[in-house]
């Protein structure tokens, strides 16, 4: 279904994460989603002026806005310059864990460095060993 379609419709009222839109991107089926939860985080609406975006979205949960977004997407489908740009953006979308993992690594490194800067005592006031930058890197990986 994903690979055979040009568009993937996901007008969710509530969607904490959503995998459907990610699978659709993987198969270059352009998502049309409602801006909620994980859908808003992963699908960036296409902007025909700057060429950015990997799908289409609408804000209000109603059939009229949904239909207008579908019509806009179909309009751009028949304009090769825009459609090819959207497909290129989808292809460049980061759909694996490499990007997320590096962001998590940065967060953990900052937390460990902050911990080292604070007092070196745990709640029972026993001194704890300071973690070096190299040890921090090894702990995270």
TrEMBL record:
SUPFAM superfamilies: UDP-Glycosyltransferase/glycogen phosphorylase (SSF53756). One of its GO terms (molecular function) is glycosyltransferase activity. InterPro entries: Glyco_trans_1. Residues 1-83 form the Glycosyl transferase family domain. This is Glycogen synthase. It comes from Halalkalibacter wakoensis JCM 9140.
């Amino acid at each position: 279904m994903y690979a055979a379609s040009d568009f993937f419709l996901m007008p969710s009222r509530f969607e904490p994460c959503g995998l459907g839109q990610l699978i659709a991107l993987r198969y270059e089926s352009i998502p049309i989603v409602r801006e909620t939860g994980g859908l808003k985080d992963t699908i960036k609406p296409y902007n025909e002026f700057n060429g950015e975006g990997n799908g289409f979205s609408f804000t209000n949960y109603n059939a009229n806005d949904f239909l207008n977004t579908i019509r806009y997407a179909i309009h751009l489908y028949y304009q090769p310059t825009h459609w090819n740009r959207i497909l290129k953006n989808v292809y460049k979308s980061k759909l694996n864990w490499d990007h997320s993992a590096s962001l998590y690594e940065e967060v953990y490194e900052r937390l460990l460095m902050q911990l080292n800067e604070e007092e070196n005592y745990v709640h029972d006031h026993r001194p704890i060993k300071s973690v070096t930058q190299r040890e921090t890197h090894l702990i995270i990986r």
